[in-house]
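Try it yourself: sequence plus fe (ii) ion, in.
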Amino acid sequence: MPSFAQHLLTTPAFLAAAMSRLPLEGAVAFPLVDDTGCKKMLMAIESLTFRKGTPVVGSPGNEVEQDFDICMNFDDKTALDAYQGAFEKQLNSAIEAMTPQPYQTPFFFNDTAALRYYEGSKGISPHRDLVCFEAVIAILTLSGEAGFYICDDRNKTNAKRLEAKAGVMILMRGKNFAGIEDRPFHFVEGITKERVGYGLRYNAKEPKEKAQ
Ligand SMILES: [Fe+2]
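Structure, out:
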C-alpha cells in the first residue's frame, strides 16, 4: 500500500491536545490532510458507486432529514485505506500519550462512508450518531464547503459552527470516549459548494478485526 503519512499535517502530540478538548466541546476541527492527499482520496472516491441517502430516518418524533448521496463499506479503496492506516497510527500514539487514556488501544476504524452533498443540499438535521459508534468519529472534508454544527438538542440550541472545508478533519466524540456515554448532537447545513466528505467510525458491535 502506498504511504500516506507525508500528506498528514498533524503530529500525535497535536492530536492528543485536540482530543483533550472533546469531553467539553464534543467536536474539534483542524487541518489534517494536504491538497495532494485530498486529490488522491477524491480520485479513489470518484470510482465508487453512490446511492441517494434515505431522505428521512429515525424513530417517530425523532425524525432526521438528510440530503446527500452515500457509499458505505466498499472494497477497492487504496488511497482511502492508506489514509486510514496513517491516521490510525497517529491516533493510537495520541491516545497512548494521554493520561488516562480516553479509549483502549490498539484502536482502529471498521466503518467507512463517503458522502456527497450537492450545492444547495439541505444537509442533515440535528441528530446523534448511533450508540454503536464508540471513541471518536472522524469526518474529513475532501472538497467543497459546509457548516458543521455541534448543538445541545434537536432544536439546535447553543449551535456552534465548525467550518468543514477541504483537508479539515472534524473529530467528534463517540460513545465511551473518556468514559462519557453521552454523544453530541450535530447537524450540517449551508452547502455553498458541492461537498465530498469521508467518514471513519468504530462500530463496537462489529468483529474486532477488519474483514479482509
Ligand atoms: Fe452524524
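One thing you can check immediately is this: The two ends are 14 Å apart (CA to CA).
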